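Bug #77: duplicate submission created two jobs. Keeping one. Sequence:
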Amino acid sequence: MIEFDFSYRKLNVYQLSKILVTDIYKMVKRFPLTETYALSDQMRRAVVSISSNIAEGTSKASPKEQFHFLEIAYGSLMEIMCQTEIAYDLHFITQDDLLEIQEKVVSIYKMLSSMQSTIKTRIENISSVNRKL
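Kept job's structure:
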């Protein structure tokens, strides 16, 4: 692995979202083979989208763009919440699996919300300064 340390790697929300990727990938391996290109595929894409959009958002100079990518990460996080509930309803996962994923989803949600609040304040401050000029 390259030793250069990109800033997103230091974020707790990014680190936890990567753990969630691993958890989801391990979980969907236990799904029936008929789900290979259905629910499990959708879950893999959604969970990878979370950490990917956090990383991409941190690379943007504009706070509005940063906020936009965090919104996408949040949407993917809600997909995972919904899809794990569906997997539970279909008896593909246990209640313990569901609770473990939901705990991580809630933690990531709180961190994303905090980041969004910080960025929103920055956007408002920039707008306020621009109006005064």
